[in-house]
Design brief:
The chain has 88 residues and is an all-alpha fold. The chain is 90% helix and 0% strand.
Length: 88
Protein backbone atom coordinates (compact mmCIF):
# COMPACT_ATOMS: atom_id res chain seq x y z
CA UNK A 1 0.00 0.00 0.00
CA UNK A 2 2.71 2.60 0.80
CA UNK A 3 4.37 1.90 -2.55
CA UNK A 4 1.13 2.72 -4.38
CA UNK A 5 0.82 5.96 -2.40
CA UNK A 6 4.40 6.94 -3.25
CA UNK A 7 3.81 6.15 -6.92
CA UNK A 8 0.68 8.32 -7.02
CA UNK A 9 2.49 11.14 -5.24
CA UNK A 10 5.41 10.95 -7.67
CA UNK A 11 3.02 10.93 -10.64
CA UNK A 12 1.25 14.00 -9.26
CA UNK A 13 4.55 15.83 -8.72
CA UNK A 14 5.76 14.87 -12.19
CA UNK A 15 2.52 16.19 -13.69
CA UNK A 16 2.92 19.50 -11.85
CA UNK A 17 6.54 19.86 -12.98
CA UNK A 18 5.71 19.03 -16.61
CA UNK A 19 2.78 21.46 -16.58
CA UNK A 20 4.98 24.23 -15.19
CA UNK A 21 7.63 23.63 -17.84
CA UNK A 22 4.97 23.58 -20.59
CA UNK A 23 3.48 26.88 -19.39
CA UNK A 24 6.95 28.45 -19.26
CA UNK A 25 7.79 27.23 -22.77
CA UNK A 26 4.44 28.44 -24.09
CA UNK A 27 5.03 31.89 -22.61
CA UNK A 28 8.44 32.14 -24.23
CA UNK A 29 7.05 30.77 -27.49
CA UNK A 30 4.40 33.48 -27.54
CA UNK A 31 6.67 36.39 -26.63
CA UNK A 32 9.81 35.74 -28.67
CA UNK A 33 8.23 35.67 -32.15
CA UNK A 34 6.48 39.02 -31.63
CA UNK A 35 9.43 40.73 -29.90
CA UNK A 36 10.83 42.39 -33.04
CA UNK A 37 7.44 43.90 -33.89
CA UNK A 38 6.99 45.10 -30.30
CA UNK A 39 10.38 46.80 -30.38
CA UNK A 40 9.54 48.45 -33.71
CA UNK A 41 6.23 49.68 -32.32
CA UNK A 42 8.08 51.16 -29.35
CA UNK A 43 10.33 53.09 -31.77
CA UNK A 44 13.49 51.35 -30.61
CA UNK A 45 16.38 52.44 -32.78
CA UNK A 46 19.32 50.22 -33.54
CA UNK A 47 19.79 46.59 -34.39
CA UNK A 48 16.50 45.00 -33.30
CA UNK A 49 17.53 41.37 -34.09
CA UNK A 50 20.58 41.89 -31.87
CA UNK A 51 18.38 43.10 -29.02
CA UNK A 52 16.01 40.13 -29.35
CA UNK A 53 18.97 37.75 -29.46
CA UNK A 54 20.54 39.33 -26.39
CA UNK A 55 17.23 39.13 -24.56
CA UNK A 56 16.86 35.42 -25.36
CA UNK A 57 20.48 34.77 -24.36
CA UNK A 58 20.12 36.62 -21.10
CA UNK A 59 16.96 34.66 -20.25
CA UNK A 60 18.80 31.38 -20.83
CA UNK A 61 21.83 32.59 -18.87
CA UNK A 62 19.69 33.62 -15.89
CA UNK A 63 18.01 30.20 -15.86
CA UNK A 64 21.45 28.57 -15.94
CA UNK A 65 22.77 30.73 -13.11
CA UNK A 66 19.77 30.73 -10.79
CA UNK A 67 18.52 27.15 -11.16
CA UNK A 68 21.16 25.68 -8.81
CA UNK A 69 20.68 28.55 -6.35
CA UNK A 70 16.92 28.08 -6.26
CA UNK A 71 17.39 24.31 -6.05
CA UNK A 72 19.55 24.69 -2.94
CA UNK A 73 17.05 27.12 -1.47
CA UNK A 74 14.22 24.68 -2.14
CA UNK A 75 16.17 21.94 -0.39
CA UNK A 76 16.55 24.17 2.68
CA UNK A 77 13.14 25.80 3.06
CA UNK A 78 10.80 23.85 0.77
CA UNK A 79 8.95 24.38 -2.49
CA UNK A 80 6.04 26.54 -1.40
CA UNK A 81 7.98 29.46 0.12
CA UNK A 82 10.29 29.62 -2.90
CA UNK A 83 7.38 29.53 -5.35
CA UNK A 84 5.57 32.24 -3.40
CA UNK A 85 8.74 34.35 -3.29
CA UNK A 86 9.18 33.88 -7.03
CA UNK A 87 5.65 35.07 -7.69
CA UNK A 88 6.17 38.23 -5.66
Amino acid sequence: MPELFQERTMNKLLFIICTTVAIDATGMGIVFPISPKLLQDMNVSGDIPLYVGLWASICALMQFVFSPILGALIDKIGHRPVLLLGNV
